[in-house]
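Many introductory courses stop at the sequence. We go one step further.
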Amino acid sequence: MLHLHHSWLCFRSWLAGMLSVLLGLVPSASSNISTSRPNILLLMADDLGIGDIGCYGNNTMRTPNIDRLAEDGVKLTQHISAASLCTPSRAAFLTGRYPVRSGMVSSIGYRVLQWTGASGGLPTNETTFAKILKEKGYATGLIGKWHLGLNCESASDHCHHPLHHGFDHFYGMPFSLMGDCAHWELSEKRVNLEQKLNFLFQVLALVALTLVAGKLTHLIPVSWTPVIWSALWAVLLLAGSYFVGALIVHADCLLMRNHTITEQPMRFQKTTPLILREVASFLKRNKHGPFLLFVSFLHVHIPLITMETFLGKSLHGLYGDNVEEMDWMVGGKGMGGWEGGIRVPGIFRWPGVLPAGQVIGEPTSLMDVFPTVVQLAGGEVPQDRVIDGQDLLPLLLGTAQHSDHEFLMHYCEGFLHAARWHQRDKGTTWKVHFVTPVFQPEGAGACYGRKVCPCFGEKVLHHDPPLLFDLSRDPSETHVLTPASEPVFYQVMERVQRAVREHQRTLSPVPLQLDRLGNIWRPWLQPCCGPFPLCWCLREDGPQ
């Protein structure tokens, strides 16, 4: 059997966070691509930096299994994520479309889904590559993290569930690994909730004290009923602020198999072995293919939960330990707009078909997974909607010299922050920034104490004229070009802005899934394996 491993690592830097993807494909014995109907393995990891693995230059982090994929495959050096955070980027990965097209963005600062019990998620009218491959007779599985929504109107409708988007089998976390999932971490979500509850407590406590004083002094003609209710709500809010952490753990930190909750809350030290066991079981059941398996690691997202075997083994603390554990999982199966927020490494491995050790510097996108996988499986890309991804096979096989991406747009939520132009005849890649986050002075942090940089408001800068960089010579975006330093400055600006206008004419208004109405906790949507709010269970009965 031929082995095709295609590994994509998209990342967020300190500017906007990290997202990583590893993609592997294992075709059938046929070397004829058009008829091979390959088995496909996709591996994705959160919060892994492009400089954190050996094959992209890191010589202090041990990632031998990922490095081996690069040695035997084709490595992409200009690979771009459609977003710098997990929810929108995953939506683009699965659909081949900018997240703004599906509404998987926000306009108010909610850049990812905040709760498992929220109503937002990947719309049911979106078509994923899993759905197309399932229709082509593939067994389709997702093991690991989802974070694209769960329910719409009830706790059991599962309208956004992976099984509703083309996957036959799901085992993993419907949400995302948050800091609150471990007792030693504290997420921004928990801090914000505690602050709001404490503020409401203070208001109600003040109201109750005022009513009591007014009642006792006869200055406020009021019965004792509103006094009692105000005091009761104040006590409940105060108690709630102390139990927010436990609420989040039980609400969001859970594992599911298909539609059934198996652990709530999760036993973190057991999660990695459970995921590996599930992967092995799926591959064994479907070894005769064809199959599509998407393994979405919880690594290396905070709170960096790592098995004891890897603790203290790396040179980079808990984060390094987690990266090396993630790499071990890969070898266990043989398998904002700044560049720091969207540039992703990528590796394709297909012995006998793709040349080992090849490096491609053409611009490509995570959205290209969609048409590439669909074409490999003998499916057809939907014609009833705009697909932004491009089939990578001609580029990988060497039958095409240039990428089909002349322009790529870089969104932050629903706001266009930057665009890049690959000027093929000159071999130049230009990057234009219309908006950038405001950073703190060096050494004080990235975005004024925020873990995620904002997309709008007073903490971003609107540039007139826009910032221009030549990524061909300046991939780190450190030298801003001006009309004085760059003779074709105005020509580049005019061409990019025209492309932006053409792109924007292809957009249609859609409901924003991550805005407030779709992104607040709704108790009636909360998945719970016991009588709410007593959500506790351990039903792990092995892989199925």
